[in-house]
Write a sequence for this structure.
């Protein structure tokens, strides 16, 4: 029976309608000069001219009233979370939405206070203000800092900075912050005085304070929490849907009616706190709209502003990250463009302008964006401008109605709102991800980042917590770049698919990772085997000065492994480097590759680079192509230009070996080759002259290992060092080394 009345006053969301993006588009907007610049900075001058008044105005007004009712209750609770005067919450939602409508690009974005941002703001303000009055005075300073930081990021096109806040780091930080916010609301919901502190402090140090619990406050808090938890079920019933849509406003109204009838009359605020049956209420709030003025900066406030700067940077980054993520999601779903530049400018100007009214930092509310879409909002007039007008009218005429709002109801709203930010489910997803062996260390590193973000935020605070998680994320990125994964590739043969015409009759080759390869794609996979005499590998990551040495060491170790595990007549013919996962090369890496190509060519071993692309292909062709051609037989050099895949280079290797008369000279581990020198060392004898060992002889009294090459005319004990020459100067000879020496050829033995 209340549905027609609700529709008439705009409190019932109308059915969803198709939203036509009212963004700047069309030939009139493609102008040069000042007009194009104005439309780029302030899109409202483009879409407002084409605003369909008849079809969109009614939906925008209805949606604006709905969002305004929701935002009044939320802003009062968020102001309490910030630790400032409650009226500052509605003040923060007056000028900011209008400024966003001018500069923003998201149709459904609803600017206002948010639980996560207010939680961070509360931690920053508590460090610099001891009382509610002091925190309310310095809150505009923080808001201006946040706005200036976001505006400068937009002007300098620095939206990419938020990418350093990885998803696991942000998830752990948000979860710990929400948990702290929930715990901070328990004591007020029990009716304990503010001097009692958090519930953790009460349980650990002052458990006797639990005897002072006010039962009326506890029961009202329980009823309020139960009602908020059942709001989703109420939305499923058409007649009860308004009770679920406007749950905060309904709760505050019913709570105010209860306290007006329950609390003993004639008691002041201080007496009500001490009375055992009295429920603490908001109290008197100065009616009327705020006076716009810039915050007055005193002589001692400059140091305060400087000390708040790190916290302002954190609030700004988190505000933009959460706002842009929600706006981007809605823009993709509804088919309109979201520009990071405009979003930074818009959110920054919202906070700079909001400071004129003494506001706390604001951002886009993701939950309110969904409500705006359900209400059929078709422009930012309905999502922001009409919301601002409705809140201003409410503050002007209905401020006395806030007197009897129970504080425990605001605590319950914060408690339930913070519980929605808990992301333990994401932590479980990361654990499942880390259990898969094919994901390797990357999955475990994400779990570690989440744990560090959660634990450090829980015990060190929000700022130190997020900084710890971000620093760890950056260290992991550096380690992954410096120590990239090198995949040893093997040849996998698969039969041709049935029913596919024009397939060659031979089996198709796939070069896959030798470790952890599975059959996929519905194909019948055969065993993966190494190419005889050819080392094929894939370097996964950029190749530059910090990791090129690791590549050299890995190649030497892999070559030695193949030689030692293979028969005596094994020939190591070539190394094929698949560069399909190498985005760029620096000059140090190019120089190292040139050295490797030439040194391997001196041993009659080919070093070829396959699967190059884009800029990497051009660099390899211009700087390394000549060295690769010189290593080939003269008849095969023209074929190098036509080789691109690993299969092409494998065929080239076998053709080159068939034309070559000289055998490749493999890399040998001199632990087995220097057995005679080791026995001399054990007897304190003098080593043969001309060996590498004679330089180390005064210091070396036990067997050692060198990585060295041998020349065809080398005599016993005469060696040529490779890079790096020394693998180990103190590794004792093991039984495996003696066994390898026994199986070696006469020269090596």
């Amino acid at each position: 029976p209340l549905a027609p009345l609700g529709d008439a006053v705009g409190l019932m969301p109308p059915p969803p309608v198709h939203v036509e993006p009212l963004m700047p588009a069309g030939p009139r907007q493609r102008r040069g000069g000042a007009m194009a610049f104005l439309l780029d900075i302030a899109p409202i001058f483009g879409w407002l001219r084409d605003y369909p008044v008849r079809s969109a105005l009614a939906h925008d007004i209805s949606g604006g009233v709905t969002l305004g009712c929701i935002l009044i209750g939320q802003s009062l609770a968020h102001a309490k979370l910030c630790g400032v005067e409650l009226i500052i919450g509605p003040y923060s939602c007056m000028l900011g939405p209008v400024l966003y409508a001018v500069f923003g690009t998201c149709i459904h974005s609803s600017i206002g206070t948010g639980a996560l941002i207010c939680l961070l703001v509360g931690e920053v303000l508590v460090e610099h203000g001891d009382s509610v009055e002091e925190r309310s005075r310095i809150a505009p300073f923080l808001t201006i800092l946040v706005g200036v930081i976001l505006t400068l990021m937009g002007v300098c096109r620095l939206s990419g900075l938020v990418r350093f806040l990885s998803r696991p780091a942000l998830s752990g930080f948000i979860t710990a912050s929400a948990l702290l916010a929930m715990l901070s609301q328990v004591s007020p919901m029990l009716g304990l005085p503010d001097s009692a502190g958090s519930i953790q402090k009460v349980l650990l140090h002052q458990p006797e304070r639990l005897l002072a619990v006010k039962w009326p406050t506890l029961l009202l808090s329980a009823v309020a929490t139960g009602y908020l938890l059942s709001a989703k079920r109420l939305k499923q019933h058409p007649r009860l849907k308004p009770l679920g849509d406007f749950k905060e406003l309904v709760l505050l109204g019913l709570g105010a009616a209860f306290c007006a009838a329950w609390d003993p009359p004639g008691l002041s605020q201080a007496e009500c706190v001490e009375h055992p049956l009295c429920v603490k209420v908001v109290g008197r709030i100065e009616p009327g709209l705020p006076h716009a003025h810039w915050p007055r900066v005193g002589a001692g406030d400059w140091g305060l502003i400087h000390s708040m700067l790190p916290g302002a940077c954190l609030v700004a980054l988190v505000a933009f990250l959460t706002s842009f993520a929600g706006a981007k999601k809605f823009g993709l779903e509804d088919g309109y463009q979201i520009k990071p530049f405009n979003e930074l400018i818009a959110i920054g100007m919202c906070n700079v302008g909001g400071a004129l009214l003494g506001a706390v930092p604001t951002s886009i509310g993701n939950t309110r964006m969904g409500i705006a879409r359900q209400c059929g909002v078709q422009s930012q007039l309905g999502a922001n401008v009409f919301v601002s007008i409705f809140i201003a009218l409410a503050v002007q005429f209905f401020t006395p109605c806030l007197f009897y709002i129970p504080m425990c109801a605001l605590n319950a709203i914060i408690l339930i709102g913070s519980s929605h930010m808990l992301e333990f489910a994401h932590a479980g997803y990361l654990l499942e991800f880390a259990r898969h062996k094919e994901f390797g260390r990357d999955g475990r590193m994400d779990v570690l980042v989440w744990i560090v973000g959660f634990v450090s935020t829980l015990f060190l605070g929000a700022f130190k917590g997020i900084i710890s998680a971000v620093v760890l994320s950056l260290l992991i990125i550096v380690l992954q770049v410096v120590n990239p994964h090198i995949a040893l590739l093997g040849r996998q043969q698969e039969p041709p698919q049935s029913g596919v015409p024009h397939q060659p009759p031979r089996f198709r080759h796939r070069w896959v990772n030798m470790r952890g390869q599975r059959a996929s794609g519905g194909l019948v996979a055969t065993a993966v085997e190494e190419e005889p005499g050819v080392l094929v590998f894939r370097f996964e990551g950029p190749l530059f000065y910090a990791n090129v040495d690791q590549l050299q060491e890995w190649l030497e170790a892999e070559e030695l492994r193949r030689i030692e595990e293979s028969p005596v007549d094994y020939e190591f013919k070539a190394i094929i480097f698949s560069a399909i996962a190498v985005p760029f090369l620096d000059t140090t890496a190019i120089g190292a590759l040139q050295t490797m190509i030439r040194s391997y060519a001196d041993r009659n071993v080919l070093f070829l680079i396959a699967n190059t692309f884009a800029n990497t292909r051009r660099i390899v062709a211009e700087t390394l192509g000549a060295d690769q051609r010189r290593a080939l037989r003269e008849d095969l050099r023209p074929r190098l230009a036509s080789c691109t895949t690993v299969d092409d280079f494998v065929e080239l290797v076998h053709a080159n070996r068939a034309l070559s008369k000289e055998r490749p000279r493999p890399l040998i581990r001199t632990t087995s080759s220097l057995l005679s020198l080791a026995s001399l060392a054990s007897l304190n004898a003098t080593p043969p002259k001309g060996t590498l060992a004679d330089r180390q002889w005064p210091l070396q009294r036990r067997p050692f290992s060198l990585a060295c090459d041998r020349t065809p005319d080398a005599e016993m004990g005469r060696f040529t060092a490779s890079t790096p020459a020394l693998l180990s100067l103190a590794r004792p000879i093991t039984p495996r080394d003696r066994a390898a020496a026994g199986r070696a050829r006469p020269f090596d033995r």
Remarks:
- The mean pLDDT is 80.
- The longest strand covers residues 485-494.
